[in-house]
Amino acid sequence: MATFVDEVTLYLRAGAGGNGCASIKREKFKPLAGPDGGNGGDGGDIVLVADPQVTTLLSYHHSPHRSSEKGGFGMGDFRNGVTGGDLELPVPVGTVVRDAEGVELADLSETGMRFVAAEGGQGGLGNAALSSTKRKAPGFALLGTPGEEVSLLLELKTVADVALVGYPSAGKSSLIAAMSAAKPKIADYPFTTLHPNLGVVEAGQTRFTVADVPGLIEGASEGRGLGHEFLRHVERCSALLHVLDCATLDPGRDPVSDLGVILRELEAYEVPEGQVPLLERPQLVALNKIDVPDARELAEFVRGDLEERGYRVFLISAASHEGLRELGFALGELVEADRSVRADAEATKPRIVLRPRAVDAKEFEVRVEGGTYGNLYRVLGRKPERWVAQTDFQNDEAVGYLADRLNRLGVEDALFKAGAVAGSTVVIGPGDGMVFDWEPTLTSAAEVLVGPRGSDLRLDENQRSTRRERRDAYFERMDAKAEARAELEREREAGIWTADQGADEGSEAPGRAGDD
């Protein structure tokens, strides 16, 4: 038995990018001919595609975890890694894509619409691409970045022109089977229909689709029965057809009271912002099962009451096909009127403007977060986070290259402005991220310099003192000693201390006891 699924959670993992290669070309009589490491290939994306041949999300219900191909790693002799293939996931037309927090990301309401759900990782550069006039033979390559991992909620909202609504066993499935080539399951017990059925109806030159929505009961908008679960399939319909059972044997039920219950449930259901409320859409009433004599009599009795309320009423029989032709043409008129209104709205619809990224947009931001052992400085930005992911921290030259890139981006200046000092804890990326004990003068050789910013102690001149300078320094020391002896003599002559007193005190001083 086929199962209908209209809501499912997908767990997607895009392919990771391949690592770059660090290689040196070797030739005869030329063992070191320069770097020739190729780049890693990009990982494949995961794309959702609206496909009219798909009618349910059942396949994703059974296997919700999907992943795309990884990028190949680079190789020597300038051989780049293979690019991972994209994974295209066909979904029914009318699928709404939401993130884990429930925010709507895409509405695939038209055939062929595509949405990149997860982007593949970027391949790392090989040392051939990293070489320059200043770095002729890099001894490292960049790593590939991991692909995106996301959880998405897919919600199917059937795209149909007309929705058949009514109580269970009102004859909606029989009606759609009689008006179209659809073959829904039909039985003589309530809740036979467990999922919406679509049928294509032709009325003259007009062709439209009809959706058979599972039966509504009182309290459906509050989650009772199956109605609330499938009311979302009515949101996209242009018109509503109330199918009322005139041959019901349930006590206390009649077509007028059934219509009142259905109208209250449709009014209580909240449609998304920007859509027309369900009760404000064109509505027709079909009094079904008039092939039964008592049902025909009841239909003729309530017809006038319903017409006084402003409804256009049709007496039909899904079993004998009586009245279906007139009903089909009436529905076709409503659909054509709605299509003309939508065409005018599309003509006046504002264009989508794609604005490029601002030239002066910030590449990153520095946040100061308090911690147990002092302030923590967090660097957030697409570029710094990607550069950290591409760095091989087992290679000192690669770490130095990362420091150069961060410095050119202005990360060090921003950290200085935020109040960071040497030894401060810096985290790049959200969450745990990559933690560093920050040293503001990291260079491409991964050396720590203690000189002022903008200076390099390796470039300082180590000049040797001349003979004259050494002689002048010697005379200065001798003059200082002579001045010190003269000061002591003046103090002795003034009676401040005597030679015997100084000798006694000196003999008791620490470290002088053993002097002879």
TrEMBL record:
Listed GO CC annotations: cytoplasm
Record's keyword terms, sorted: Cytoplasm, GTP-binding, Hydrolase, Magnesium, Metal-binding, Nucleotide-binding
Binding site for Mg(2+): 173, 193
Predominant subcellular localization, coarse grouping: cytoplasm
Top-level division of the source organism's lineage: Bacteria
EC number: 3.6.5.-
Location relative to the cell: Cytoplasm
Biased composition (Basic and acidic residues): 484-494
Record's keyword annotation contains Cytoplasm: yes
Leader peptide range in chain numbering: none
Record region (Disordered): 484-516
Cofactor: Mg(2+)
GO MF annotation, one: magnesium ion binding
Residue ranges occupied by any OCT domain in the UniProt entry: 356-440
Binding partners and assembly: Monomer.
UniProt similarity note: Belongs to the TRAFAC class OBG-HflX-like GTPase superfamily. OBG GTPase family.
Protein's name in the database: GTPase Obg
Taxonomic source organism: Pseudoclavibacter endophyticus
